[in-house]
Amino acid sequence: MTPSFFDEGALVAVLTTQPLDRALDYKAPEGGCHLGAFVEVPLGPRKVLGVVWGPGKGDYDYTKIRSVLRVLDVAPMRTEMRDFLKKAARYTLTPMPAMLRLATRAPGLGDPPSMHKVYRRGPDAPDRMTDARRRVLEFLAEYGDLSFTLKELAELSGVTSSVIKGLVKQGAVAEEDSPRDLPFPPLDPALPGKELTEDQAHAARHVAEAVAAGSYGTTLLRGVTGSGKTEVYLEAVAACLRAGRQALVLLPEIALTAEFLKRVEVRFGARPAEWHSGATMTERRRIWRMVGQGQAQLVIGARSALFLPYQNLGLIVVDEEHDTSYKQEDGVLYNARDMAVLRASLLGAQVVLSSATPSLESWANAESGKYTRLDLEARFGPAVMPTMKTIDMRAEPLPSDRWVSDTLKGEVDKRLAAGEQAMLFLNRRGYAPITLCRACGHQVGCDQCDARMVEHRFLKRLMCHQCGETKPMPTTCPSCEAEDRMAPVGPGVERLGEEAVRLFPDARVAVLSSDMYGSARALKAEIESIAAGGADVVIGTQLVAKGHNFPNLTLVGVIDADLGLQGSDLRAAERTFQLMRQVAGRAGRAEKPGTAMLQTFQPEHPVIRAILAGDEEGFWRAEAAEREAAGVPPYGRMAGIILSGPDVAQVFDAANALARNPAPLTRIGAQVFGPAPAPIARIRGRHRVRMLVKAGKGVALQGAIAQWIAQLRLKGDLRLAVDIDPQSFY
Ligand code: ADP
Ligand code: ZN
Predict the structure, then answer these.
(1) 305: number of Cβ within 10 Å
(2) CA–CA separation, 655 vs 688, rounded Å?
């Protein structure tokens, strides 16, 4: 049994966030320390953050062992959290220090609480009364003992801050220091939710009862966009709050909107904690600490909110569970959806996976009975699913600078005449994907990567979508030096925007692409203003498919429905199906029925046909049968191995050495494919070589891979990354 407390001088093993391969021994500090305590320890000349992970190993000269410098004033890491990090590390084959870094992504954890000045009623009367002074004092009297910041008080009582400072001097207003990291206001689960339809009420009852029972379980909540999935899972959140446990709602980053938070606030009477990449350092620290003390009951957050130190987590909702942004593609390669299920199973908590178009993984888990499946069949209220049609592009030849067919143009014109919105969807950022020299045929590529540079006319530069490198648009060809012969080829959303302005001269055209706004917040604000009627024709990339409500939008035109069907990605069909259905789901959300039109050169493709027929079960069954026959996920296991380095020969040598010694893998019946140059063979100057490991469903894949790669000594600047359950294969 691991002791839960270590007396002063006892040896403790401390896991740090530094890239070391083991926990280091230290002496417990004066006053001792708890197992799981967050501590500061000396490492060489530095002080680093760590967690007391267990008793020390004692394999080092005791007299040379240093002491823990101090125990930080935060709740110790719980056993459950340590187990979760260990299991997640084992699953993703990630070193523990990197896991700990994920769990401590808030700055200044050990700092004393940061303070700010607040103002409240003071004991004395001012020597002289003015109108302004009276307003302040009457305002404070009305609010009794509440305190305000200077700015709040000045604004609320309609005076300048110098008036308040004057009253402070006189003792009529008291100035005090107060900690900034305040608890989050309590949420009230007893406030009434919406009156649910029969379908919704049934689903809500099921999840609420599961949460109240306090054991582990995962529910797949499936229903078309607008069917009320959010209403249903908010009832599960209410049940969780009533049970006195914390709840977490994970959303794709872009879906974390003011609109959504407002909705939660209305349901529970106060704002929840909001964890996302735009949060300030102070906000992050406050959330991290309050979550650990149980003083934040509900967190709405992006992916990494899963690694916060919850005191008593009872429910995790993963909204849009199929969304690819749940998979972190650099650093620790983890899928937040899968890790949510892991964490909940360790906690005895419930998971709700919500989606209009679930991943095949979750669909299969529901089929096999591992997950409970609940379906909401109809859209709420008068909204109906949009009508879906294809436009056969073989029958509508277009000049080389046009992408909107005459049929689609005609449909957009009708919507504009009716005062409605239309959306043109194209999943390609920038102006043109290729910049070509008309004299010699040269295509401008990135110097660092094996990728074409994409013209961004908005930024007036060429950009590499792999590494973000940009360069000015050349006027002479970098290859043959011909002047003024560089031409854009193919469409991106910016170019489509130009076409729309030409085709619909009287309409207000807005282009929505993540790179055209300074920040995620600015982008969200723009989406909200467009949804409120700020544009007639909306041109958008993938991000408009995510969770936004455009009540006046009645037509979605998909410029290139075939785009996702190309390529050899295992999930190409699934992704296209999901994306097209979601995009279509943007149309006709309020009273007006919507139409989705897909421009395609292959209208008879099975995926396109399944999208048109709206036959989801049929699509999933067919896709499942194909994957099962091929022995690929979710009916088999996969791992990607990516070796990279500056020297291509060295990278290949290392990969070949591994491939020649596959014994640990063959023992579990796994196969190795490759090595082969990665589809993007160079990123940021590093050459990349991939191998793919395929194995049967029930095998201990991670253990075998760990043994296998342990044979390789990584020399110099060579790096190896293991991607368990890969989502992308670039
Ligand atoms: P989903 O999450 O499935 O896309 P939402 O929960 O966002 O669906 O519901 C879509 C819209 O319909 C929202 O504006 C929501 O407030 C409304 N709505 C859903 N169910 C009800 C209900 N039972 N009563 C009133 N409004 C509802
Ligand atoms: Zn590049």
Answers:
(1) 24
(2) 10
Residue 53 burial by Cβ neighbours in a 10 Å radius (0-12, 13-18, 19+): buried
HSE, side-chain direction, 13 A CA sphere, residue 720: 26
The model carries a pTM of 0.84
What Rg do the C-alpha atoms of the chain give, in angstroms?
29
The torsion of the CA quartet 186, 190, 193, 199, rounded to 10 degrees, works out to: 120
CA of 205 to the centre of ligand 1 (A): 16
Q: CB of 383 within 8 A of CB of 482?
A: no
How confident is the model over 402-460, as pLDDT tens digits?
999 999 999 999 999 999 999 998 888 889 988 999 999 999 988 888 888 899 888 88
Which regions of the chain are under pLDDT 70? 1, 110, 112-114, 145, 254, 379-385, 518, 520, 543-548, 566-568, 588-591
Which residue lies with its CA nearest to atom 20 of ligand 1?
228
In angstroms, the CA 190 to CA 195 distance is 14
Q: How far apart are CA 600 and CA 105, in angstroms?
A: 45
> Checking DSSP bridges between strand 719-724 and strand 637-645, what pairing results, if any?
antiparallel
Residue type at 403 in one-letter notation: W
Q: What is the set of domains in the chain, with CATH numbers?
A: 5-78 (3.40.1440), 116-179 (1.10.10.10), 198-376 (3.40.50.300), 382-428+492-632 (3.40.50.300), 430-490 (no CATH), 637-724 (3.30.70.600)
DSSP state of 646: S
The alpha carbon of 531 and the centre of ligand 1 are apart by a number of angstroms equal to: 17
**Cβ atoms 189, 267 nearer than 8 A:** no
The ligand placed nearest to the CA atom of residue 467 is 2
Reduced to 3 states (helix: H, G, I; strand: E, B; else coil), residue 218 is strand
Residue 504 and residue 492: Cα distance in Å, rounded? 18
Is residue 270 within 8 A of residue 188, CB to CB? The reply is yes
